Amino acid sequence: MARTYTSRIRGITGFLIYLTIPATSGAAADIVIGQPSMNQNGLVTSPLTSALLNNPKSVMVAGGKLVICDSANNRVLIYNSVPAANFPAANVVIGYPDFVNVD
């Protein structure tokens, strides 16, 4: 699930990142992508790294790779596999020559 205004992706292993399918509404996610912690208060966007997201819009899994549109940074981040730990670094960036220099 993309949480656009909190700049993190919360999710089921392989698509969204809950280690088990939630049995109740409001269940906490197991893994957070895009911000340093599950309880991050406020947006962290600087310094820009391969692990930070700002206004993520779309999420998909293709060929075992997780692909996230990081819209406010005008880039697409690709993870070689669906992350199994909090605050993972992406492996590939599309839209810029590296992870830290965006216009």
How many discrete domains?
A: 1
Q: State the total count of DSSP E strands.
A: 7
Which spans of ≥5 residues are poorly predicted at pLDDT below 50?
10-15
Q: Strands of the biggest beta sheet: in what spatial order?
A: 4-5-6-7
Mean pLDDT: 80
Q: Beta-strand percentage?
A: 25-35%
N-to-C CA distance: 27 Å
Structural class by sheet pairing and helices: mainly beta
**Main sheet specs:** 4 strands, antiparallel
H/E element order = EEEEEEE
**Morphology:** globular
Brief overview:
0% of the residues lie in helices and 27% in strands. With 103 residues, the protein is mainly beta. The protein is globular, with a radius of gyration of 13 Å.
Task: Describe this structure as you would to a colleague.
- The protein is mainly beta.
- The protein has one domain (2-38, 45-94).
- Helix content is 0%, strand content 27%.
- The chain is built from no helices and seven strands.
- It has a four-stranded antiparallel sheet with strand order 4-5-6-7, with no helix packed on it. Strands 1-2-3 form a three-stranded antiparallel sheet, with no helix packed on it.
